Amino acid sequence: MPALMPTEYTARVTWIGVVGNRDAALASSALKSVQALFDGPVGESHGGLTRPSCSRVLKQHPRNTEIRNVRQFSIISAEELAEIAHRMELAELDPSLLGATLVVKGIPDFTRVPPSSRLQGPDGVTLTVDMENRPCTLPARVIEDAMPGYGKRFKPASLGRRGVTAWVEREGTISVGDEMRLHIPDQPVWSCLGKARRGKTDLAETT
User: Structure pTM?
Assistant: First the structure.
């Protein structure tokens, strides 16, 4: 029995970028297409099969432990990017300031797609969603440099709208204008999810 289910939802790629040197700058440079290899997007400083662990996984690994890199791609939806801009009181927000790899359009509530979902492109290139990309202060600094006074607005405005991180399951090329189909795990939501979150309301039960 197949473990993944193709859905009717597709995401059109509207923007592509790579961060050439994250030590020099977080902002990404726009491209028309990018090769997605097993170690990530070609030219992306956040690529690699492994990465040093960071603050996001300190409860699992000491900082700078070598772990599998499931954050090769940073993907945000055009709809949620527009909502972030609106909440920041901006007409628009350049995705390059967020260090984004892909901006996609067409999948509602994109940040909350199930972990382990796949986005598959026309040539078979497949990205596996790791999980929600939580807001952090790094893009805020880039935004502040570009638009003084707005950086501090980013983190609260992007909560629950920051998109997802992903890694390459199948190599291929992704181009602006491509349609990527969403495939989701064919399993129910874990019945103990709410309890495991220490009594927090299960989001799956309220949406």
Answer: 0.90
